[in-house]
UniProtKB/TrEMBL annotation, chains A, B:
InterPro entries: Amidase_CS, Amidase_dom, AS_sf. Residues 18-195 form the Amidase domain. It comes from Bacillus selenitireducens (strain ATCC 700615 / DSM 15326 / MLS10). PANTHER family: AMIDASE 1. This is Amidase. PROSITE patterns: AMIDASES (PS00571). Pfam families: Amidase.
């Protein structure tokens, strides 16, 4: 019998007990169905994947760390097909219901993890974030979400998407627990790092918002920037952020095809709308284009490093617009995806840690969100900064 | 500047940070001002005690265990003078305000610890329970409270009252945290102990209630007894429970004078009403009377052990009546104390662990409480039973 009225789960009852007590004692968590759990077969959001893969021989180390800190794993969650979407609609396994407003999509690809957390079914949930797959659903569902520095949390035992950008991320309803999961998965903070003293409010990122959205975020931005000594509004790049999206998509698509092209060709899986087209696009990407994109990425990283000094935080909106309605036509979905990725590509291309913080609005309006980014590797200090800001 | 509008604290700001992470991570607790904290001077509820004692050289091991499990010690709390009362009124340090209804006493002697928990100022609080000093204030303030098996939690670094009955106890607002504190202070449960299969509903204990009070507790008693295979109503002794109180008071008074008589004679401290008379009574107790009381206690323990088989729980009301009003005359207070101790002496004389569980009533009526007692040493299993019953 299912109690999953939100359609968040692939297997609601799969349970792994904690291995000992720790700071996540009595906390329950759900896991995006792309993490290996000993004896469990993943779907990766596609029934052909499920049919063509054996049960996992070992549990992903990231999950083991959580079990060793006292948390109980309860349930695997729906993901967009092959994690290759930011929308949260899955033609095979259904669209998890956005707990804030069922007429809105939950966001993806870690859709079920966001919904399990947002609906209060679990204390926290684990997802993956390559192009925004934790940050977007967190913001659509009114949650705290974290994407760590690239390489900071082990991806062993996690079905890959695009290795240059893949990360393990998580969702919570409060900042303290977001930090606690970070303590378990990331360990100690960097020794001798300076306090954050400076906040850069990314003018080119905020310019993607309407005035109404901009105004809705201003008090959150002010309370954040008032916690540091100085803050300034400035462009974070002379490029158009749309160019960053193109660079990101070329590298991402190429790596996705590297990881999954052979399987796609061998099994010709039945993909839903959008996913099919994206895999087709990925197959066409040429090595020369990837080489050029990687060169541009290095230049971007150099320029961003100049801004992101060790004591500096960056503030951006998490999404450029309102959470979209369920069932939009594919071309509309793609337009939203393109706009959203102008913001998510910032952490993506630069490998930076990013926390998204929900900003509630009155009058039944869906939540918006701001994000704080920190220099690479300062994950623990960023999470602790957000706890002191929000709790 | 004080934020302690409930008058729960002696020193609200005294803080000891956790020594590492653990299952009490992010939990805060307050401590009855009879526990040694390195560098801190205890009051034991009396200003003469404070003046005549040096700061503690070490922190009580029970507190150290909590700090090592991730909890933060925040504040020392008001206690009845010399812990020698069940009422919660202290002429020197004030009467902590019962968070349920300020016209009612909070109960004592761990009054401030109960109020700090009940008012939500701390997640849990530590007290001591000799004759009911955790169980009574827990029930008056609508809280979960625990008195462990005698000898189960270290009393090192705790100002003694009466060695035969002294225990360290604690208050929480929910059963899970009551159990978690038990896991930290008591350690693992006994190996190979049977499940609880039988509940004894103590008829002679329930007969102390009015019909209205009795009816208010019945649904809680039923939900408890339905969790075990069989239950029966029976007298737990052929004695009058009033005799048990007399036996308890003789041994308690004698030991209190052994512990503190010399100090009382040397300092002639200024005691409030009730306390003064009780110390005077304690001074008069003769060795022959104590020997006789101890003989009777052993007989009681034998008879109770026949009832409390390893698989058996006992259910009693925690208090015999309503939480009393603030400022009653001393002779009225003594009458209530005498009646209440008929129930608290059961665990006291037999060294049994006891959990008190709040029973809320509608219509602005103060909470009542039932208690579950287990065989000596089965503290962890009792706490886990209560969690499965209440959470």
């Amino acid at each position: 019998m299912t109690t999953d009225h939100y359609g968040a789960f692939i297997d609601e009852s799969l349970t792994v007990e904690p291995q000992k007590g720790g700071i996540l004692h009595r906390k329950t968590f759900a896991v995006k169905d792309v993490f290996h759990i000993e004896g469990h077969r993943n779907t990766a959001g596609n029934p052909h994947w499920l049919q063509s893969h054996a049960p996992a021989k070992a549990t992903a180390p990231a999950l083991v760390h959580l079990l060793q800190a006292g948390a109980t794993l309860k349930g695997t969650t729906v993901t967009d097909e092959m994690m290759y979407s930011l929308h949260g609609e899955n033609v095979h396994y259904g669209t998890p219901v956005n707990p804030f407003d069922k007429s809105l999509i939950p966001g993806g690809s870690s859709s079920g993890s966001a919904v399990a957390t947002g609906a209060g079914l679990r204390d926290f949930a684990i997802g993956t974030d390559t192009g925004g797959s934790v940050r977007i659903p967190a913001s659509y569902c009114g949650l705290f979400g974290f994407r760590p520095s690239h390489g900071k949390v082990s991806l062993e035992g996690v079905i890959p998407l695009a290795d240059s950008f893949d990360t393990v991320g998580w969702f919570t309803r409060n900042a303290a627990l977001l930090e606690d999961v970070g303590e378990v998965l990331i360990g100690d903070s960097m020794p001798d790092a300076p306090d954050f003293k400076r906040a850069v409010i990314a003018r080119d990122a905020f310019s993607l918002l309407t005035d109404t959205q901009h105004n809705a975020l201003m008090s959150a931005v002010r309370s954040c920037s008032s916690k540091v000594k100085s803050h300034e509004e400035q462009r974070i790049t002379n490029d158009d952020l749309g160019d960053w999206v193109d660079i990101f998509r070329v590298i991402q698509g190429y790596e996705i095809w590297l990881n999954h092209g052979e399987w796609v060709k061998a099994h010709e899986p039945d993909f839903g709308p959008g996913i099919r087209e994206r895999f087709h696009m990925a197959e066409q990407i040429k090595e020369a284009d990837v080489a050029e994109a990687r060169r541009r990425q290095l230049m971007i990283q150099d320029a961003t490093a100049d801004i992101m000094q060790p004591d500096t935080l960056m503030i951006i909106p998490t999404i450029a617009g309102e959470p979209p309605a369920v069932g939009l036509p594919p071309e509309e979905v793609d337009k939203i995806r393109q706009r959203t990725m102008k913001l998510t590509a910032i952490a993506g291309l630069n490998g930076l840690p990013q926390v998204t913080i929900p900003v509630k609005r009155g009058g039944g309006l869906p939540p918006l969100a701001i994000s704080i980014l920190a220099p690479k590797g300062r994950d623990r200090d960023l999470l602790s900064f957000v706890t002191s800001l929000c709790d």
